[in-house]
Specification:
Beta-lactamase, disordered N terminus, single chain, 7-stranded antiparallel sheet, alpha+beta, 14% strand, 4-stranded antiparallel sheet
């Protein structure tokens, strides 16, 4: 599995004063350990258990913007439990799962929590945020703020002019096929992903833009897929530049408030005060499931289309080969050849969406490491088991309806 580890959070364990008492018990316990390393890869499991639920409560680099919920809440009615041929308790223990919410035909058919996490608490999304960011590109096109995914990126981020991004379209940024050189190796302290957040930007320029404009080209645009966290951050800047709004405000305006999310979420910021669009939305797991419902509903809110026609189809089908049989990459969504697609983040965060089965699986976890092979493969097996359970349920329902019709 290809995931990005974003080294973006600077935590300070001393000098909090009165702010200490505004944080919950888990955060206080976390800070009491004296953790000051900004890289989550070097935290202990226990520190991550505490920290992942309260990242927006720490004195981060530049704080967090609130993604405001509205006055109305979209209810998630409880449905009949989905009969699964798998031990959910064992699965959650092996996943070190904080939350698992399965929605089928608009009803919650399974909802479980672990690691002392709850339905009303928030957990960081990591790269799940990438898929929400790409959806805002669609919203901006529908609003007329962005003309087309075929436009040059430099039409919207003028500071990229004169760089390797002169030949890159918005679509190529969305699909990570820019051809611009990038090293996403987190074991290499000199890699781009390890360096770009610490980059000292040119005066008046966003940190990400300043770093990315210095990168060379390694392949013709559109020909090579490489996972690049920095480019998702560029997408966020592009949306903000085009709309004149922060990502948090725009997400609240277009989806979070009108669709009926249960509570405010937050979005961490970089040192230039912009949302880190490749990472770090803190939200309730049920609200991530609601975002899945927004996608399943064709990107509509109260009957109004928020996204262009066919946007979801284009965004969630394979636009780029990633070298894994049966999988691909769309507009910041991981795709499966059976038609399902997913938003995924390190340490086990995810939203799995299967339109054909009217199915959503929202999950949060704290895996033993960022992308462990065992837990990653086990999660995909779980997705398949849930799909099989839905298929069996549909077959039973169809058989019962046929029997009743014949009686």
């Amino acid at each position: 599995m290809k995931k990005a580890v974003l080294v973006i959070v600077g935590l300070v364990a001393i000098g909090l004063g009165g702010a200490w008492f505004s944080l919950d018990e888990d955060a206080r316990a976390f800070l009491a350990k004296g953790q000051t390393d900004p890289n989550v890869l070097f935290w202990s499991i226990e520190e991550r258990d505490a920290g992942f639920r309260v990242l927006d409560g720490f004195p981060v680099l530049a704080g967090a913007h609130t993604i405001a919920a509205g006055d109305e809440r979209l209810e998630l009615p409880k449905g009949d439990p989905l009969p699964l041929d798998i031990d959910v308790t064992d699965y959650m223990a092996n996943q070190r799962s904080a939350a698992l919410v399965i929605v089928h035909k608009g009803n919650v058919v399974l909802e479980e929590y672990g690691l002392d996490f709850t339905a009303d608490a928030k957990w960081t999304s990591f790269s799940v945020a990438k898929s929400l960011t790409s959806t805002l590109v669609g919203a901006a096109i529908a609003d007329g703020a962005i003309r087309s995914v075929d436009d040059p990126v430099t039409d919207y981020i003028v500071d990229l002019k004169g760089s390797a991004y002169d030949d890159v379209s918005v679509a190529q940024l969305l699909t990570m096929t820019s051809g611009v050189a990038w090293n996403e190796d987190y074991g290499d302290p000199n890699s781009d992903v390890a360096q770009f957040n610490n980059h000292q930007p040119e005066e008046g320029m966003d940190t990400t833009v300043s770093y990315m404009r210095s990168l060379p080209r390694e392949a013709p645009s559109g020909e090579k897929w490489v996972y690049k966290t920095g480019e998702t951050n560029l997408i966020g800047i592009l949306v903000s530049e085009a709309t004149g709004k922060s990502l948090a405000d725009y997400l609240s305006e277009k989806i979070w408030a009108p669709f009926g999310m249960q509570q405010d979420a937050t979005w961490l910021l970089n040192n230039a005060g912009n949302e880190i669009s490749g990472c770090c939305i803190q939200a309730a797991t049920r609200d991530m499931a609601r975002f899945g419902l927004f996608m399943l509903g064709g990107g509509r809110v109260n009957g109004k289309a928020i996204l262009p026609e066919n946007w979801i189809a284009a965004a969630t089908t394979k636009q780029a080969e990633i070298g894994t049989p049966g999988e691909g990459y769309g507009y910041q969504w991981w795709t499966y050849d059976d038609g399902a697609y997913a938003a995924q983040g390190i340490f086990g965060q995810g939203i799995f969406i299967d339109e054909a089965r009217d199915l959503i699986i929202a999950s949060n976890a704290n895996w033993p490491s960022a992308v462990p092979t065992e837990q990653d493969a086990q999660r995909l097996e779980f997705y398949r088991a849930v799909q099989s359970a839905v298929d069996a349920l549909n077959e039973d329902t169809e058989e019962q309806e046929n029997t009743e019709a014949a009686a």
